[in-house]
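Thread: quick sanity check before group meeting

JM: Hey all, I'm pulling together slides for Thursday and realized we never actually wrote out the predicted structure for the chain we discussed last week. Dropping the sequence here so it's in one place. If anyone has concerns about the input, flag it before I start.
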Amino acid sequence: MQQAKELAHRISAQATRLYRDEQGAEGLEKLLIIGAIVLPLLAALFFYRREITDMVKGNWTDIESDTGNLPSDDGTFDDAG
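JM (edit): ok, ran it. Output follows.
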């Protein structure tokens, strides 16, 4: 019976110590804040992925088509495009 009381007391003391321990709480708070920012951004990227892909492809096509109008070394424009 005495051993059971000692065990209960040790478990209680350990639980109290664990409850009062704030070490690592700052890291957890930072992780939760980062998660609160990153998860909605990932959701938006996933939801609008087709629109973003179309926009990037369109811009890349515009860039590729404009490269034919770059001036050459002598200052004249090439008719390569």
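AS: nice. Residues 1 and 7 are 10 Å apart (CA to CA). Helices lie at 2-20, 25-47, 49-66.
JM: adding both to the slides.
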